[in-house]
């Protein structure tokens, strides 16, 4: 079960401000989702190897060859918050 | 002698090294040659974490990791893979770092260092591959920061993080470990330690086998020793006052030389590690034989060979193999048929000593000349040719110049950018060894002019002899051989 404190902590990890009312709302929604997935626990999986990739592919590599980068103005095109060629963000506490 | 470790100090290190010899970043084709570039000019959708971009692993990263693993005598995993480490911070555009978690590529290695009481083995818990975050620059000081500027040029550069066992028992051992580790990495040619940010260290330290404290953000070898000395003193003081050391993360303030508490609410479980679905797992043990073939002779083996092959002392062999470029330079000099013992003295003692005195670090060797660069100001750089060292060693070996003159030649070569051979420098400065009759004349004059010192010496005051030798050197402007002058004075006075 997810508690109100868990929701507040998750909010902090995501650096999202969550109101008192939202905390209760998210707690209920998250518990409902977890409960739904909890049905999987009923299946016998003791002897089943976990599947992380549906395709059994190994060793996908590229060679160490330089490719063209994006121009600075394109990189910064989607933000208004820029200064001296860098992204500018508020001080991080 | 066994080291007692009176304060029960235990130190473990986590070392991040950049694979800055690779041409491209870890998961994209962006160039790693960004050190003098404008911000955000070496990026692409992959290293900016733009939606839909897919990472593809640089094969050379895996080869480098295997090389490091083999050099540390570790085990290479049968199967290895990447995880996502989730946290929100603006240096990480995706909101997670691609790293390795419970299946690191390397585990159970070791490095033997010169410890407090002789050879000491430091265990390597693991080494894994991960990507570097971007770089943050605070506007103003960190405390009064008005904002943060982000440059993603570094974002996605390949790192290898190496974690040691808490096997080091003093800050000195920690520093020696780092020196040795860096030396090995340079031998492997995966890493250029002279580039800014190439090696970053976090240290875990505890005293009296107690609670461990993590000290983050140490960027130099000297910094590690200082940070640890401070932190050990702080922990001892806490205990002396009857307090308890609390488990925490502290930040090293290099300018002030102190560690400061960092409040952090994030615990390991908060990183919500899970397998990276964008990257396929790897089975690379069949690469090992081929990678093994590319492994160079490592420092310890080279040291042993130097002693046997060149008949030099262990001290010289150790010093010469402390940098692969220096070792290669020395071998380049010896290959020209000079006396290897004399070459060792002039390379390991004088040349290296004069470099250290000037804060110059060896940065290149191309078979013809060895280059060096100022540790703090990369604009200051110079080089010395193999042929120059050969000439100098031969002139000295043939007795044509005194040792003082040879030192003077090396200093001149380091301090001037003009390309001059030792003979030219000797000619210009008049450093050729004085003819014997000149020295004999100077000895006679010195004895005549310094009666008091002569009497003192004859009366048993050995120091006065040094004074007289000094006078002869002065008269001959340093061109006399000090030993010859000394012998002549003794012969003259005592028969």
UniProtKB/TrEMBL annotation, chain A:
<keyword id="KW-0436">Ligase</keyword>
<dbReference type="GO" id="GO:0005524">
    <property type="term" value="F:ATP binding"/>
</dbReference>
<comment type="function">
    <text>Allows the formation of correctly charged Asn-tRNA(Asn) or Gln-tRNA(Gln) through the transamidation of misacylated Asp-tRNA(Asn) or Glu-tRNA(Gln) in organisms which lack either or both of asparaginyl-tRNA or glutaminyl-tRNA synthetases. The reaction takes place in the presence of glutamine and ATP through an activated phospho-Asp-tRNA(Asn) or phospho-Glu-tRNA(Gln).</text>
</comment>
<dbReference type="Pfam" id="PF02686">
    <property type="entry name" value="GatC"/>
</dbReference>
<dbReference type="GO" id="GO:0050566">
    <property type="term" value="F:asparaginyl-tRNA synthase (glutamine-hydrolyzing) activity"/>
</dbReference>
<dbReference type="InterPro" id="IPR036113">
    <property type="entry name" value="Asp/Glu-ADT_sf_sub_c"/>
</dbReference>
<comment type="similarity">
    <text>Belongs to the GatC family.</text>
</comment>
<keyword id="KW-0067">ATP-binding</keyword>
<dbReference type="InterPro" id="IPR003837">
    <property type="entry name" value="GatC"/>
</dbReference>
<comment type="subunit">
    <text>Heterotrimer of A, B and C subunits.</text>
</comment>
<keyword id="KW-0808">Transferase</keyword>
<keyword id="KW-0547">Nucleotide-binding</keyword>
<protein>
    <recommendedName>
        <fullName>Aspartyl/glutamyl-tRNA(Asn/Gln) amidotransferase subunit C</fullName>
        <ecNumber>6.3.5.-</ecNumber>
    </recommendedName>
</protein>
<dbReference type="GO" id="GO:0050567">
    <property type="term" value="F:glutaminyl-tRNA synthase (glutamine-hydrolyzing) activity"/>
</dbReference>
<keyword id="KW-0648">Protein biosynthesis</keyword>
<dbReference type="GO" id="GO:0006412">
    <property type="term" value="P:translation"/>
</dbReference>
<dbReference type="GO" id="GO:0016740">
    <property type="term" value="F:transferase activity"/>
</dbReference>
<dbReference type="GO" id="GO:0006450">
    <property type="term" value="P:regulation of translational fidelity"/>
</dbReference>
<dbReference type="GO" id="GO:0070681">
    <property type="term" value="P:glutaminyl-tRNAGln biosynthesis via transamidation"/>
</dbReference>
Automatic annotation (TrEMBL), chain B:
<keyword id="KW-0808">Transferase</keyword>
<dbReference type="Pfam" id="PF02637">
    <property type="entry name" value="GatB_Yqey"/>
</dbReference>
<dbReference type="InterPro" id="IPR014746">
    <property type="entry name" value="Gln_synth/guanido_kin_cat_dom"/>
</dbReference>
<comment type="subunit">
    <text>Heterotrimer of A, B and C subunits.</text>
</comment>
<dbReference type="InterPro" id="IPR023168">
    <property type="entry name" value="GatB_Yqey_C_2"/>
</dbReference>
<dbReference type="GO" id="GO:0005524">
    <property type="term" value="F:ATP binding"/>
</dbReference>
<dbReference type="GO" id="GO:0050567">
    <property type="term" value="F:glutaminyl-tRNA synthase (glutamine-hydrolyzing) activity"/>
</dbReference>
<keyword id="KW-0436">Ligase</keyword>
<dbReference type="GO" id="GO:0006412">
    <property type="term" value="P:translation"/>
</dbReference>
<dbReference type="Pfam" id="PF02934">
    <property type="entry name" value="GatB_N"/>
</dbReference>
<keyword id="KW-0067">ATP-binding</keyword>
<dbReference type="GO" id="GO:0016740">
    <property type="term" value="F:transferase activity"/>
</dbReference>
<dbReference type="GO" id="GO:0070681">
    <property type="term" value="P:glutaminyl-tRNAGln biosynthesis via transamidation"/>
</dbReference>
<comment type="function">
    <text>Allows the formation of correctly charged Asn-tRNA(Asn) or Gln-tRNA(Gln) through the transamidation of misacylated Asp-tRNA(Asn) or Glu-tRNA(Gln) in organisms which lack either or both of asparaginyl-tRNA or glutaminyl-tRNA synthetases. The reaction takes place in the presence of glutamine and ATP through an activated phospho-Asp-tRNA(Asn) or phospho-Glu-tRNA(Gln).</text>
</comment>
<dbReference type="InterPro" id="IPR017959">
    <property type="entry name" value="Asn/Gln-tRNA_amidoTrfase_suB/E"/>
</dbReference>
<dbReference type="GO" id="GO:0050566">
    <property type="term" value="F:asparaginyl-tRNA synthase (glutamine-hydrolyzing) activity"/>
</dbReference>
<dbReference type="InterPro" id="IPR004413">
    <property type="entry name" value="GatB"/>
</dbReference>
<dbReference type="InterPro" id="IPR042114">
    <property type="entry name" value="GatB_C_1"/>
</dbReference>
<keyword id="KW-0547">Nucleotide-binding</keyword>
<dbReference type="InterPro" id="IPR006075">
    <property type="entry name" value="Asn/Gln-tRNA_Trfase_suB/E_cat"/>
</dbReference>
<keyword id="KW-0648">Protein biosynthesis</keyword>
<protein>
    <recommendedName>
        <fullName>Aspartyl/glutamyl-tRNA(Asn/Gln) amidotransferase subunit B</fullName>
        <ecNumber>6.3.5.-</ecNumber>
    </recommendedName>
</protein>
């Amino acid at each position: 079960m997810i508690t109100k404190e868990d929701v507040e902590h998750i909010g902090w990890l995501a650096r999202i401000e969550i109101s008192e009312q939202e905390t209760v709302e998210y707690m209920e929604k998250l518990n409902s989702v977890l409960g739904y997935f909890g049905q999987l626990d009923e299946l016998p999986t003791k002897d089943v190897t976990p599947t992380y990739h549906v395709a059994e592919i190994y060793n996908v590599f590229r060679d160490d060859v330089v490719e063209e980068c994006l121009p600075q103005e394109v990189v910064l095109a989607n933000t208004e918050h820029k200064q001296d060629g860098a992204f500018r963000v508020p001080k991080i506490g | 002698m066994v080291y007692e470790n009176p304060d029960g100090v235990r130190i473990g290190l986590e070392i991040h090294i950049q694979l800055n010899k690779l041409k491209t970043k870890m998961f994209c084709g962006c160039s790693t040659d960004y050190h003098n570039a404008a911000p955000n000019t070496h990026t692409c959708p992959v290293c900016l974490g733009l939606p839909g971009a897919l990472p593809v692993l640089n094969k050379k990263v895996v080869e480098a990791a295997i090389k490091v693993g083999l050099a540390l005598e570790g085990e290479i995993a049968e199967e290895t893979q990447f995880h996502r480490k989730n946290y929100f911070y603006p240096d990480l555009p995706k909101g997670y770092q691609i790293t390795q978690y419970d299946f690191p590529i390397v585990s159970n290695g070791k490095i033997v260092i010169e410890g407090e009481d002789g050879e000491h083995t430091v265990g390597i818990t693991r080494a894994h591959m991960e990507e570097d975050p971007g770089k943050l620059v605070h506007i103003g000081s960190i405390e009064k920061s008005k904002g943060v500027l982000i440059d993603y040029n570094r974002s996605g550069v390949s790192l290898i993080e190496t974690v040691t066992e808490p096997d080091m028992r003093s800050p000195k051992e920690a520093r020696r470990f780092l020196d040795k580790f860096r030396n090995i990495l340079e031998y492997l040619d995966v890493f250029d330690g002279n580039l800014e940010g190439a090696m970053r260290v976090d240290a875990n330290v505890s005293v009296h086998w107690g609670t461990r404290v993590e000290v983050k953000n140490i960027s130099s070898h000297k910094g590690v020793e200082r940070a640890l000395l401070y932190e050990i003193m702080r922990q001892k003081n806490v205990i002396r006052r009857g307090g308890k050391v609390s488990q925490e993360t502290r930040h090293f303030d290099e300018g002030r030389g102190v560690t400061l508490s960092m409040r952090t609410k994030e615990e390991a479980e908060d990183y919500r590690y899970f397998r990276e679905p964008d990257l396929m797992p790897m089975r690379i043990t069949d690469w090992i034989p081929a990678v093994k073939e590319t492994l160079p002779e490592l420092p310890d083996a080279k040291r042993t060979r130097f002693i046997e092959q060149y008949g030099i002392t262990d001290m010289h062999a150790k010093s010469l193999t402390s940098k692969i470029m220096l070792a290669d330079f020395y071998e380049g000099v010896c290959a020209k048929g000079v006396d290897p013992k004399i070459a060792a003295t002039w390379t390991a003692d004088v040349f290296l000593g004069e470099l250290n005195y000037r804060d110059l670090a060896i940065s290149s060797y191309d078979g013809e000349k060895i280059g060096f660069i100022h540790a703090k100001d990369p604009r200051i750089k110079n080089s010395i040719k193999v042929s120059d060292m050969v000439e100098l060693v031969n002139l000295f070996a043939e007795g044509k110049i005194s040792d003082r003159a040879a030192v003077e030649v090396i200093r001149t070569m380091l301090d001037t950018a003009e390309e001059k051979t030792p003979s030219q420098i000797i000619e210009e400065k008049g450093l050729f060894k004085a003819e014997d009759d000149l020295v004999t004349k100077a000895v006679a004059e010195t004895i005549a002019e310094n009666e008091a010192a002569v009497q003192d010496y004859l009366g048993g005051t050995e120091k006065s002899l040094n004074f007289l030798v000094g006078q002869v050197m002065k008269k001959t402007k340093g061109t006399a051989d000090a030993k010859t002058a000394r012998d002549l004075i003794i012969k003259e006075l005592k028969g």
